[in-house]
Amino acid sequence: MADCNETLAELHRYLDSELSPGRADEIVAHLKTCTDCQGAFEFHADLQRVIRVKSQGDVITPQFLSNLRGCFGSDILGSPGG
Ligand SMILES: [Zn+2]
Fold it and tell me: What's the CA gap between 26 and 15, in Å, rounded?
C-alpha cells in the first residue's frame, strides 16, 4: 500500500500513465482512502489538463497561475516546452 509521500511523489507518473498497473492500483487504493491525496490528485489532474490546453494555445487565467505559484513556487512555470 502506498503512503501519502509515495502517492504524491508518483502522482505525475500516474497521471501520465507511466506507472505499472500494479503500482497504479496502489495509488488508486490510497486515493480512495485519503482525502488529502484526493485533493492533490484532483489539483494535479486539473493542472495537467490546463497545461495540455495551454500547449494548444489557449489562455490560463491569472488566478490559476497564482494558485500554481502558491503551491509550487515559480519553478514549475519556468521551463517552457518541458
Ligand atoms: Zn494520502
Answer: 14
